[in-house]
Design goal:
Pfam families: DEK_C (PF08766), DSPc (PF00782), PH_SSH1-like_1st (PF23040)
CATH architecture of the largest domain: Roll
Largest sheet: 4 strands, antiparallel
Shape: flat
CATH class of the largest domain: Mainly Beta
Catalytic activity: O-phospho-L-threonyl-[protein] + H2O = L-threonyl-[protein] + phosphate
Enzyme class: hydrolase
Strand order of the largest sheet: 1-2-3-4
InterPro entries: DEK_C (IPR014876), Dual-sp_phosphatase_cat-dom (IPR000340), Phosphatase_SSH-like (IPR043587), Prot-tyrosine_phosphatase-like (IPR029021), SSH-N (IPR043588), TYR_PHOSPHATASE_DUAL_dom (IPR020422)
Number of strands: 12
Strand content: 5-15%
Number of domains: 4
Family: Belongs to the protein-tyrosine phosphatase family.
Order of helices and strands: EEEEEEEHHHHHHEEHEEHEHHHHHH
Structural class: alpha+beta
Helix content: 40-55%
CATH topology of the largest domain: PH-domain like
Number of helices: 14
Radius of gyration: 31 Å
């Protein structure tokens, strides 16, 4: 273990953990060093030994302890450590070991909060060395990255399944296997069913409808991921589990709560754990997904399609209608539910309002951000972005009212100027003319701003869908 560490790093704690493999040994190791700010910096390493007698170990996980780190007991003899969108579960082999680990981790997290260590800053840059040393077997890496809060949308199987249910389970498994090795463009569903009957050595006439429906489902899952933009694919669980298809992919966005990351040791994942329901709040996640969108899990009908539409609206300045039609044209099964469409409409309003204010030179908008943008340290002390935007729009309305009032005063001054021998009226008329010139200048500025906004909302030539 000590051979893996850099000379300037020290071990603060090493706790043995439970393992799903009886012949393997796992350790959670907390190491620290003095950083660029001459302050203590801590990270957690996951160490793997191939067997109990092995003297050689490898690294399977590296977890930085940022200022936002949270620790929670799981009620099952372990605890979770969550930070910067990642979460890992640790189950020490004894109560005493868990107590020691919790004490050390809480003290390390207190240091991170005190000095405000955040991703992208100058702290914890040395963890890149250990990330480059991750060499554990894939099964070990998968165990470090296991997601314990997955929930299946399928109902539990009955204790004693019926004969038909058992047969349908066998049909599903064998049918998928058969279809994987058939030329589906030159074979009929009847021929596939006959092949299935030979494999199962029984007559499946009463299952004809079930087999046809299952074939359609498998065909849909076997479709390749759809190229939406040059760097964005929209796919399904099947695509995300097909390693051969993922050869050219580096990042995967998983917008599901019920599907695990299939290859956590090979790809960089970002998880948005939400249900496919109208009440689900996707809007809160779209700025994070905008920065991490390449390929998405789960059928590509609701959650993932909505996320790609939101990405297109922000990246290319498209309206909701244009972005929706573009994605729908590329992937016909994309169908956001009513709740997601309402959120997309709200998101369109946010983007339009922000763009309008950004184009108005009368408003300094350097600090206006959409929901979810910026770190906690960066947004501290500012109004909520939506409230900020509302106040600015109200201020804009007040300015318009002031302009109308100014017009009335100009009219009154013009009337006075028409009175014979009224020198005071002439002066007021001159002032009115200067005021009118100023007002026209402002109108021209607003017109130019509108033209720039219209140009920004136009479709890029590379993605002409007209």
């Amino acid at each position: 273990m000590f051979k893996i560490l850099r000379s300037e790093d020290r071990i603060k704690l090493a706790v043995r953990l439970e393992s799903s493999w009886s012949d393997r040994v796992r350790y959670m190791v907390v190491i620290y060093t003095t950083g660029h700010q001459d302050t203590e910096e801590n990270i957690v390493l996951g160490m793997d030994f191939t067997d109990k007698d092995s003297k050689n170990c490898s690294i399977g996980m590296v977890l930085p302890l940022w200022s936002d780190t949270n620790i929670h007991l799981d009620g099952d003899g372990g605890f979770s450590v969550s930070t910067a969108g990642r979460s890992h579960v640790f189950k020490p082999v004894s109560v005493q070991a868990m107590w020691s680990a919790l004490q050390v981790l809480h003290k390390a997290c207190e240091v991170s909060r005190r000095f405000n260590y955040f991703p992208g800053g100058i702290a914890l840059t040395w963890m890149a060395f250990y990330e480059s040393c991750i060499t554990s077997e894939q099964s070990c890496i998968n165990e470090w990255n296991a997601m314990t809060d997955l929930e299946s949308t399928r109902s539990d199987s009955p204790t004693m399944p019926t004969e038909r249910e058992r047969t349908e389970c066998v049909i599903k498994a064998k049918l998928r296997n058969i279809m994987m090795f058939q030329d589906l463009e030159n074979i009929t569903s009847k021929e596939i069913r006959n092949d299935l009957e030979q494999h199962m050595n029984c007559n499946l006439k009463e299952y004809k409808e079930f087999i046809d429906n299952e074939m359609l489902l498998i065909l849909g899952q076997m479709d390749k991921a759809t190229l939406i933009f040059d760097h964005v694919y929209l796919g399904s669980e099947w695509n995300a589990s097909n390693l051969e298809e993922l050869r050219e992919v580096g990042f995967i966005l998983n917008v599901t709560r019920e599907i695990d990351n299939f290859f956590p040791g090979l790809f960089s994942y970002h998880n948005v754990r939400v249900y496919d329901e109208e009440a689900t709040d996707l809007l809160a996640h779209w700025n994070d997904t905008y920065n991490f969108i390449v390929k998405i899990h789960k059928m590509g009908c609701n959650r993932s399609a909505s996320t790609v539409i939101a990405y297109a609206m922000k990246e290319y300045g498209w309206s909701l209608e244009k972005a929706y039609n573009f994605v729908k044209q590329k992937r016909s099964i994309a169908q956001p539910n009513a709740g997601f469409m309402r959120q997309l409409a709200e998101y369109e309003g946010i983007l339009d309002a922000r763009d309008a204010l950004l184009e108005d030179e009368a408003f300094p908008m350097a600090h206006l951000a959409l929901p979810g943008e910026g770190t906690a340290a960066q947004t501290c002390g500012r109004l909520d972005p939506l409230e900020d935007m509302r106040l600015r729009l109200e201020f804009s309305t007040l300015e318009e009212e002031d302009e109308e009032e100014a017009k009335k005063e100009e009219a009154e001054m013009a009337a006075l100027a028409q009175t014979p021998g009224n020198t005071e009226g002439k002066k007021m008329e001159e002032e009115a003319e200067r005021s009118e010139e100023s007002r026209l200048g402002l109108a021209n500025l607003n017109t130019n701003n509108s033209n720039r906004l219209a140009a920004k909302r136009s479709c890029p030539a590379a993605f002409d869908v007209s």
